[in-house]
Amino acid sequence: MQCHYCDREADIAVENDGVKVGVCKTHFREQMAELEDADWLEDLDEELDIDRRE
User: Fold this and answer.
1) Is 54 inside any structural domain?
2) Residue 23 lies in a domain
3) Cα–Cα–Cα angle for 34, 31, 40, nearest 5°?
4) Which InterPro entries would you find in this protein's record (predicted)?
5) What is the pTM of this model?
6) Is there a domain that residue 1 lies in?
């Protein structure tokens, strides 16, 4: 499977309702970094009251 964003081979693939999308490691990391910066994710974290122990 090819990466959704470039012509490299997909390293990670997900499927939902019969639609399958793959991404290479580089684009996966970019998407994860964008999610880290999203305000809604922090709000969700607070709403779920997740306890992370380090």
Assistant:
1) no
2) yes
3) 40
4) DUF6757
5) 0.63
6) no
